Amino acid sequence: MDKKSIIGIGLIFAILVVFSLINQPSKEEIEASKRKQDSIAQVNADIAFQLQKQKEQQASEQTFVGSTETVSSEKVAQNKVDEYGVFAIAAGGEETFTTLENNLMVITFSNKGGKIYSIRLKNYQTHDSLPLMLFDGPKTLFGLNFFAQNRSIQTDLLYFNRLGGNRKTVVSGPQIKREDEGKIKFNEENPGGKESVTFRLEVAPGKYMEYVYTLEYNSFLVDFDLNMQGMNQYIAANQSYLNFSWSFDVPRQERKVPRFGEDSYTNINYKFFEDEVDFLAKNKSDDANLNTRVKWIGFKQLFFGSTIIADESFPNAQISQIKTEEDPDYLANFHADIAFAYEGTQSETIGMQFYFGPNHYQTLKQYDLDLERQVYLGYPVVREVNKFVIIPIFNFLRKYVANFGLIILLLTLFIKSVLFPFTYKSYMSQAKMRALKPEIDELNEKFGKDKAMEKQQATMALYKKAGVNPMGGCLPMLLQFPILIAMFFFFPTSIELRQESFLWATDLSTYDSILNLPFEIPFYGSHVSLFCLLMTVATIFYTKLNQQATASTAMPGMKTMMYMMPVMFLFILNSYPSGLSYYYFLANLITIGQTLLIRNFVDDDKIRAQLQVNKKKIVKKSNFQKRLEDMSKQRGIKSPKK
Questions:
Q1: CATH of region 91-376
Q2: Per mean pLDDT, which range of 225-234, 357-366, 424-433, 555-564 is the poorest?
Q3: N or C terminus of the chain with fewer C-beta within 10 Å?
């Protein structure tokens, strides 16, 4: 190492020594630094203390919460006991579902209340091709209300135990055809299976109430048995009835039609024990107290229904319906509070049935319970025509013809053929009246308006001599009128036509719209029904044809009225089922054809000649004519000269 290197190292060392001496902290700075370090340590200690304190507090809170939960749980349990008594054991649980089905329906049960939760009919769909549910959802109310141990108990809020392990039970049987669905006779000849689902509410060993639902193959009926064992120890001894509440919102199944659709046929029907069938109002909300024994109560829609049927009778009931016309999904809410007779014995069973199915006349009639009265077929006289004429013919044709458009055509041909003799008689009466028109005009001129009684006597004498019955043209029409009106009620309520298509009509049970209008015409609607238009045109043409035959005898004011009728029916029937308009259209065409045919074979000149011959015959006065003349003499009116 040379001299320069040694000197450089020395200088560096000297500089470092001098720098350290210069920067050495004073006594005050050393004390300040020490205080700072002590402060940092104190802060760290405080943080550690706070963390430890938080941990201890959290542990304390968890202990407190656990203790509180225990206290709360005990309080809830005690509250349930206070509220439900021995039924408190069923006051809580988890809702589960069970299904029971046959070839016709699927029934869904809920263990909450042990109730029927929903019904789906398997072979039907809604108007928009969705599964058809008679009712569905948590709003369905189905349960008993009674007093037990001075407490009001509602079983709809309690959880039942389902007996058995299967949550899906299917009732099997032989293959059937569509026309044999739900037929008792078919089931007797081809028996299928039968299955049951049981829900039990047990309050003590061997003491319970249970719901037993039984469903047979190919049946719309569901047996429902309420079994009670040892419940007399808990249910109030002075209670002679158990109140059963059944309620649900009625889902819309069909296309909404103003004034004449499903809304107009949705209401509650009921039958008094060994008495008549009655019903609540069809077009509005309504209720009733049924204070005498009731056999069944039906929650009815246009084509489907849910009916509860007593094995014997229900002592009394309260029913109500609340219409919801503005709701696009639901038609109404149905509610029934039904009294079940309760004897208070150790072991007791209350039996009944439910009908869940279509409002098909023949299907309902087979039960011999007047359930078919829920299918509205019109007023008393008209109803008999539908029951004994139209429905049997329709069902006969249905066995051999699959197309319902052709069935309606054949039905119309048959009816018009049977009525043809009356049509012919009516035409002949009109022809005779036309032949006597010149003589009638002479009498009108002779007596004028001031001698009405004398003119009437002379006219009747003329009719008598000529052998003409002035009512001959009216009576045949009156005989046809009940059939005309019967069809007016038959087609809107016939489930056979539901969703059956023909030509441009996709559903013969509702209107056939070929044009939807952007506005609504009062009393007409916002659509155009082609079958209704064709019916109107055919009616106007027949009216014109008929006016030509009666122009000489009809009153002037009647002509305008006859042309107004088809226009009125155009407005009325535009929203009615297309099957009805199709039938009226066919009936008019056939009547026009019959009238033209009769014209070709009837000679008016021969009729007039025969009437002139009849006038020369000596006619004995009838007792009525004698009395009429005697009355005239008493009033000072001379009899007309012959």
A1: 2.70.98.90
A2: 555-564
A3: N
